[in-house]
Every structure is written in structure tokens, then in C-alpha cells.
Amino acid sequence: MTTETPSGLRAEAVRVPQSGLATEARATAVVWRREMIRFVKDRARILSSLAQPLLFLFVLGTGLGSLLNEGQGGGGPGTVAFTTFLFPGVMAISVLFTAAFAGISIVWDREFGFLREMLVAPVSTASILLGKALGGATVATLQCLVLLALAGLVGVPYDPLMLLAMIGLIFLMGLMITALGLLLAARVRQVQSAMPLVQLVITPLMFLSGALFPLSGLPTWLAVLTHVNPMTYAVEPLRSVVFDHLDVDAATRARFDPGITWGSWPVPVGVQILITVASCVLLLGLAVWRFRRTE
């Protein structure tokens, strides 16, 4: 519809779509799709993101395994090679770095003005950040599929139910870490400031999650730090799923996968997953709140 102004100029009426659930879901899908397009077109990113976990798994794992007097196949029936133990942790490390940088990449969008264009659209900030978080989690999951294909090389069986459970846990972990990256990016204005901040946060998360060492026999101060680290509650279910499908004796299981205990209470895997889900909701909610205050 057009109207004529007093000066004789014709003005076009602009129709702004009403906000609703369908509109918000469409906005989330568009942001998610943009993350997928960026991922597919950046082949160098795909290859470089695989180098670090492969080094951790085959170089660090084999080296530490030889220190423990283990061969490539372990110490015999019912035992487990250190590379087998390390496999879920390496998956978690891959997710941690990929998802964190996917979340912090919104700083690039802010620096080049694209974030402002998204935020002025007639959709909520929550829908935009949810699409970004889902995109980061999907990218992290897709990259881990390559590592899952190598599971047999380190003694992890190709059990369909185990692999499906691992994919679901990897996606949930990626969602939590991407939300953390978005929260860190809320106040960051320049890419140069974003990189050191991410390294400062994700490095302690990695080393204090039990991804690289068992949670048994830790000194008190280290046990406390691992228990307050939300990443621990995302790594342990992943390792528990793997050990559920390994033929190991009880002593070996207790050594390499003792689980998480609060005092004398062993925390069930279901509770650990709920803690990860709660962390996702909390971090994403805080990120939305911070972006509404700063943009």
C-alpha cells in the first residue's frame, strides 16, 4: 500500500512480520544454516581442527602408554590400553576447542557489522544465539565423526548403540561449550582480544575435566577442582559409555573409569547429563542477557 505525503512524495508502507514461534524458529534455522555453510566452505578449518586430537590420541596416548608398560593392545585379556582410555577424552578436547571458537566467532560478526544487522531484525536475541549455539554444536559433532571412524584403531568397538550415544553426548557437550563461547564474546569487541580470552578459559577446562587422566587417586585440591568443572560432567558420561562396551575387569574399570563421587555418593550418569543440560541452559541464558545489555 502506498500513501502520498504533504510534499507530494509517495511513501511505501513497510510490513513487519509479527513475532511468533514460527518466526523465531525460522530465524534460529537461518543462523544455524549460515554456520553450516561457513563450515562446509572452510576446508582448511576442517583439516586443521583434526590435527590436534590426532596428535593427542596417537602421539601422546602412545607415549604415555609406553610409560605405563602397555603395548598397543594393552597388557592382556581384561586390560585396557591407555589410548583406549584416552579416546573419549580426545573427543571431548576436539569438541571443546571447536565449539569454543564457534561461539567466540560471533566477535567477527560484530566487528564486520553482521551482528548488528541480525539484532535489528524483528526476532529475539535468544533465537539468534540459539541458532549460533546449535550451529557450533553441529559443527563440533560433524568433526568428531571422523574421530569416531578411527575408534577401532585404539580398541574401541564399533557398537551402533554406543556410537549413537556418543554422538548425542558430543552434541550436548558442543552446545554447552558454544554457549560458553557466546557468553565470553558478549563484551569482547575485537578479535585480538577474543583469542587470548578463549585460551585462558578453555585450557583449564580441558586439563581439569579428566579428559587426559583418570579421576581416581587424585589429591584433594585437584579432585575439588575437577568436581566444580562443568566440563567434567560432560566428559565422564562419554567415557562411561565407552567402558560399558569394553571387556575389562572390575579393577581396571575402577582404575581408569571410577566415575564421579560427591563424598561417598557415586553420581549416576543420568544426573551428570542433567547437570550438563542445566549448564547449557544457564550459559545460553546468561549469554542472551549479556547481549541484550551490550548491543
Describe the structure.
Helix 1 crosses helix 6. The protein is about 70% helix and about 5% strand. It has a two-stranded antiparallel sheet. A two-stranded antiparallel ribbon has the order 3-4. With about 300 residues, it is mainly alpha-helical.
Write the layout of secondary structure elements.
Elements: E1 2-4, E2 10-12, H1 21-41, H2 43-67, H3 82-104, H4 106-111, H5 114-119, H6 125-149, H7 160-185, H8 191-207, H9 220-228, H10 232-244, H11 250-256, E3 261-262, E4 265-266, H12 269-294
Antiparallel strand pairs: 1-2, 3-4
Descriptive labels:
69% helix, elongated, two-stranded antiparallel sheet, 295 residues, two-stranded antiparallel ribbon, mainly alpha
